Recover the amino acids of this structure.
């Protein structure tokens, strides 16, 4: 996969990530399971930063699929920059992209994930409302 970049004008959410000592595997770089956690964490932080509390209580997201490319190890002492943005949506589903870069700007990992919006009370899939699509564009 070529390095992911958000389309021009796309709203992007970013945060720095500093790996903890326990995030490193026996090869001396951040474990792939940690990247999965970071991908979920930044998606959740983005959702919470852009969505009113009432809507956060009414809806939730469940993950359907991750596709992750690991390109460069993140090493001890390095801080990563994570960026996320949303892509296409259909019905209750949204594609979300995450790119995690090392301090040199090189891609450490990138992901395309498919998420499904559910009604928090019924736990059933629900169509993504138009206002929500606009909120994340």
């Amino acid at each position: 996969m070529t390095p992911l970049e958000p389309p021009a004008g796309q709203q992007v959410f970013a945060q720095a990530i500093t790996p903890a000592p326990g995030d490193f595997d026996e090869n001396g770089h951040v474990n792939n399971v940690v990247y999965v956690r970071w991908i979920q964490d930044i998606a959740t932080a983005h959702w919470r930063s852009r969505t009113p509390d009432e809507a956060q209580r009414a809806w939730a997201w469940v993950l359907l699929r991750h596709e992750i490319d690991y390109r460069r190890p993140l090493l001890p002492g390095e801080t990563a920059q994570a960026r996320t943005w949303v892509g296409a949506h259909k019905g209750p589903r949204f594609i979300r992209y995450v790119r995690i870069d090392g301090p040199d700007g090189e891609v450490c990992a990138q992901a395309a994930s498919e998420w499904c919006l559910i009604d928090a009370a019924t736990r059933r899939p629900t169509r993504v409302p138009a206002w929500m699509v606009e909120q994340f564009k």
Remarks:
- The domain at 13-135 is CATH 3.10.129.10 (Thiol Ester Dehydrase; Chain A).
- The beta strands are 13-17, 59-70, 80-90, 93-101, 107-119.
